[in-house]
């Protein structure tokens, strides 16, 4: 049984500001909460690196924002570990990943690279909750993505489709994204086991997610048994995956990270250590206005996965 090393940011803030040597963030966002971690470490000695992925040309962009004159390096996945490794000190590093601002695909690639290649001294992640989600369509459903692409693998974790695959989608607000996967011609599976974050910060969020995804789940078949894991918890999501694995020990897994970023991080960590797991993603381009306010922040200690 995993001990959940998850802490409220105020409890560990001062320790982190003194010990973290590298902070990895995403690019500038309109969401206020996405600036919190970067701003927190702006006056510390920590190196701040931004990472972004362009799905169209399959290239990563890295920039050391804490340098006096930041330069951007573009690299393919084949050289990503080397380019990132050249900007940090490896074994002596204490790395903090800002889940809030990073793209979902980048979170997975970073965790795979850090845990299997760079292997720093310590690894942490942070996630800042919103106070509310705001962007809805004319039917009152959350519309947090501007557009999506056809489902595809994650760089560095692209694996062949196997027989007897079980699909585990981590549900979010947008049921049309799940339907996009189910309708895809390349999507075959023995069984689908959806996972929903429960309980959530706002009780209405879990019910909205379930309601919006119900039509897609009904088309997936009657064997779809919904499981729950704690919202915002990386460790609980991993524990849920382990429980599903015990029920289906002979199956390979296909993970669909369609919900919140902590659950995406759990998918990345689990796939990094399990060869019979692949991840599919639709490379959603997020809407500019998705949430309002800055809620509580959580820090995850992830060194055990290195």
Describe the overall structure:
- By secondary structure, the protein is an alpha/beta fold.
- The chain has two domains: 6-132 and 292-305, Cobalt-precorrin-4 Transmethylase, domain 1, CATH 3.40.1010; 145-286, 3-Layer(aba) Sandwich (Rossmann fold), CATH 3.40.50.
- The protein is built from eight helices and 19 strands.
- The chain has helices spanning 9-19, 36-40, 80-85, 104-118, 175-182, 203-220, 234-247, 261-273, and strands spanning 6-8, 22-25, 47-54, 59-64, 72-75, 94-98, 122-128, 132-133, 145-147, 152-153, 165-170, 191-192, 195-197, 227-229, 252-257, 277-281, 285-286, 291-292, 297-301.
- The strands form five sheets. It has an eight-stranded mixed β-sheet, with helices on both faces. Strands 10-16-15-11-12 form a five-stranded mixed β-sheet, covered by helices on one side. A two-stranded antiparallel ribbon has the order 8-18.
- The two termini are 18 Å apart.
- The mean pLDDT is 89.
């Amino acid at each position: 049984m995993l001990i959940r090393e998850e802490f409220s940011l105020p409890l560990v803030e001062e320790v982190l500001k003194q010990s973290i040597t590298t902070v990895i963030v995403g690019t500038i966002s309109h969401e206020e909460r996405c600036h919190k971690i970067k701003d927190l470490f702006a006056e510390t000695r920590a190196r701040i690196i931004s990472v972004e992925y362009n799905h169209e040309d399959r290239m990563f962009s890295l920039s050391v924002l804490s340098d006096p004159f930041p330069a951007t390096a573009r690299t393919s996945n084949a050289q990503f570990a080397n380019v990132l490794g050249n900007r940090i000190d490896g074994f002596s590093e204490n790395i903090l990943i800002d889940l809030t601002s990073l793209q979902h695909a980048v979170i997975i690639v970073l965790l795979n690279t850090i845990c299997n290649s760079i292997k720093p001294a310590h690894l942490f992640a942070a996630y800042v909750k919103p106070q509310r989600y705001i962007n809805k369509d004319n039917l009152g459903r959350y519309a947090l993505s501007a557009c999506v692409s056809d489902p595809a693998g994650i760089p560095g974790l692209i694996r062949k489709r196997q027989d007897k695959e079980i699909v585990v989608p981590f549900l979010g607000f947008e049921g049309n994204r799940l339907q996009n996967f189910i309708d895809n011609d390349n999507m075959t599976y023995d069984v689908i086991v959806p996972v929903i974050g429960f309980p959530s910060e706002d009780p209405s969020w879990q019910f909205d997610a379930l309601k919006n995804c119900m039509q897609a789940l009904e088309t997936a078949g009657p064997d779809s048994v919904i499981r729950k894991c704690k919202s915002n918890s990386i460790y609980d999501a991993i524990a849920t995956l382990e429980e599903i694995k015990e029920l289906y020990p002979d199956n390979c897994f296909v993970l669909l990270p369609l919900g919140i970023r902590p659950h995406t991080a759990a998918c990345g960590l689990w796939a990094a250590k399990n060869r019979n797991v692949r991840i599919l993603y639709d490379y959603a381009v997020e809407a500019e206005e998705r949430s309002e306010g800055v809620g509580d922040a959580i820090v995850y200690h992830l060194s055990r996965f290195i």
